[in-house]
Design a protein that fits this description.
Strand content: over 45%
Largest sheet: 4 strands, antiparallel
Strand order of the largest sheet: 2-27-26-25
Shape: globular
Structural class: mainly beta
Helix content: under 10%
Radius of gyration: 23 Å
Amino acid sequence: MRLLLFGLALAISPATAQDFATFASSADLTNGGEIEVDFGCAAVDDGALVWYNFPTEELLAYNTEEPPGARTFVVRSAADLDADAGVDVNRCRAAALDPAGGDFAVFALANADTNVDFLYLLGEDEPQLLTSPTEGDGDGITGLAVSAADEQIYVGRKQFFGAPEDGVYVLDAQSGALEPVLTSPDLSLADLDVDPVTGTLYALSDGFGAGDFENKVVEIADPGGAATLRVFADPFTFFTSSNRRLTDLEVVRAGAERAVFVLNNSFEDGEEIARFALGGAGVLFASETDILGDPDVASGDYAVPAPTSALRFDPTDERLFLLNTDRFGGADEALVVGDLFATSTESEGVRSAAALAAYPNPAAGEVAVVLTLERPQSVRAAVYDVLGRQVAVLHDGPAPATLRLRTAALPAGTYLVRATGPGVAAAVRATVVR
């Protein structure tokens, strides 16, 4: 089938279908049912998983090098944590590992009764309190990231939870204070990570964000200097769920490729993960964006094995983990994503090969795109501006042999065209000049 779009470049490619291999089953994690497991905050490196365990209020670790039935073990007991902090530790807000080799882990622990948060470092030496657990110096923590270049510890904080202002802070190792890197009343950070190559921070600004920063992925460039803030991507350009609950963000690196993975933890419609490739300077949207998961052939949507509570990236093994919990049904387990940067696969019953040619791009007038599909099917094509706002629906329904569209009503700028259909999901950028 040939689909000719006059107006904006439209790329439609085969859907991405991902496998999720089991890294640790419920029986593995619980040592055959001896330990009640519920992931609080977690980190993983070199195949070793460490997390704060809600039911037992202690730090646990799982390592496949241990014998079966004893692979989950206590790293720091509840009594030890309480003694280290001088307060009753009963919550964990976030966790991050040393990206250079996992020699230490940083946890944002808390006492939920007093709502006081503090940073706790666990390494080869004795545990260390990085901020005061009694003075509330670290209150309002929602995310942690450790820079690979200089081991700076960056912290996402919410004013609603006790932070002085909404934004990103950095730990002053000498004073133990969290110094502001960039704050804004429009931000409401839910998670935070750092690009190991450039040092750029990426964060989730959730549904309590204001204006252009509501439910967006934001980018904080040059956090160690003159930090700047901008919208990086709108995940809901790609998510199909009507329930907006952004919970996790991970910057992933595999070989030369890097991307931001985002989890929408929707209890009603199923979890979804979006991938936004990191490009050069000035690139707002990825050159390639996929939803990962098992394809729902009927709708063309994607479903991640539920209930996924967290995403965690292992920088040593270059694997992305999905941590599930039985708190909302299902099972306690740790899964591993198959191919992090797959662009096309064939799943059972779904095969939709596509060939594409586009010209010209950028363009001052029309952009002609000829798409060849293997079989007739319905296609929906919509256009989004750089802030993720839908500005036009190009087509929605059975794809005819040709379709003519024009860009006269669109201001000059860069746009993202998103195309979806059974077995089809793709996005491409197009530039309109005047």
